[in-house]
Target: Acyl-CoA synthetase
Amino acid sequence: MSANPYETDLDRNPANYQPLTPLAHLERAALIHPDHVAIIHGNLRVNYASFLERSRRLANALSDLGISGGDTVSVMLSNTPAMLEAHHGVPMTGAVLHSINTRLDAQAIAFQLDHAECKVLIVDREFSGVVAEALALAEMRPTVIDYDDTEYPEDAPFPKGERIGTLDYDDFVSAGSADFNRTVPVDEWDSVSLNYTSGTTGNPKGVVYHHRGAALMGYANVIASGMGRHPVYLWTLPMFHCNGWCFPWTLGVVGGTHVCLRWVRAKAMYDAIADHGVTHLCGAPIVMSTLLNAPDDEKRDFSHTVSFNTAAAPPPEAVLAGMADAGFEVVHLYGLTETYGPAVVNEWKDQWSELELGARTTKKARQGVRYPALEDLAVMNPDTMEKVPADGETIGEVMFRGNIVMKGYLKNPAASDEAFRGGWFHSGDLGVMHPDGYLQLKDRSKDIIISGGENISSIEVEDALFKHPAIMAAAVVARPDDKWGETPCAFVELRPGHTLTEAEVIEHCRGLLARFKCPRTVIFHEVPKTSTGKIQKFLLRNEAKTLGSSS
Model:
């Protein structure tokens, strides 16, 4: 048999193959748009040429400390210019960026520093107190660099903390050379960042991203978000969360402007939108609630439409209508830390806008189709590893396959093997596939309520609760029951100025759900959320267990 001519004398070489990396996005933007504003932070304006220069200086200064491939540089930073510089300067050295959740306690931070084998730690002075406690608990002794934000608000609710490091961030960066030229990645499979899961049971797992996935997410985010040239992006999503869904790297693709935001507050968001012409932002449903429920004196008028990317449960129709009236177009996304953030998008079809309200709401409840950078998305039987029928009814586990799935869990091969069993990433989410290829979540496997042998989707019950105009937030978990095994227990947070009774909530649900699916218990208090706006159901499950049997 003759050799395949397409594989003969057509070898890979530096001229025709270069490893993909998100670092190229900033480099290209600085070449084409050197004077365009890349970062807005308070009174500070940084153009693309300076953004790249500072990132290179940071890389050079880290290299002078001995940081190189395989090392971990951890950061405890808000959505500030230093965080954007770290997303580029750290991987320029070949090192891995570890972004720490700024809401964590000292013990959790110490665990991550040790598990990641942190060599350098950059700390915003806002968090110096808790980080100092963490360093006292940790075994690692990293070089600590203090970031003193010159735009820290004078009317901040609390003052900056004390310096705890041996170096000042701005002095450290200024000492680096602007001529630093990266030579990484050697392979696009090289690790670029480390993000820890929430760790609601046991220690969190370290999710490792590679350069290829982060680079591809840059292109995919632009497409899924409908970004044109020079978008203006408001940082309402924490950059520590899945590396800000990879948007710190994405904006370089289209020469966009990052508008930094230390705290998510209604007035600051409206001011940024009106003053800077913000075109895009991302966030959990709580960010939408913050915008919609803001006092009139904190709101600002703006003439353009703002694209709002949101994940988690699909927003209720009332919230979507309120956002539209306020000038926002909501794009519904779904993903996990293990998929670089969003990997599924509810790609809206024009004809759906003509549907009557009920049918339109049904379409909006779907999570959607695979991201442009994801190779495959399926709902499968986890035991047989076969796809379930795409009938919109048969429940299976949601699974992913492609280049925006993590490399694996750091130092945890058993967990990695289990997550990748059968050649697919197992999400742990349960859903159905509709005939048109759109995915719809039904629940987390651990959140399904089994009552009298019947499966009850907590998401379905929550959707019913959200349809009540007095309910601002809701979460449903299982409560032990001597007769039925489990029954739905609803935790409800009311809108300001509204009142409801347990009987009224249950009666509302009975008008929308089968009787056995309705909550048997309703508890009124603030629904606990993570720093990224996700509801902390593990706390509610624990509370429900303490109530005893509902029978």
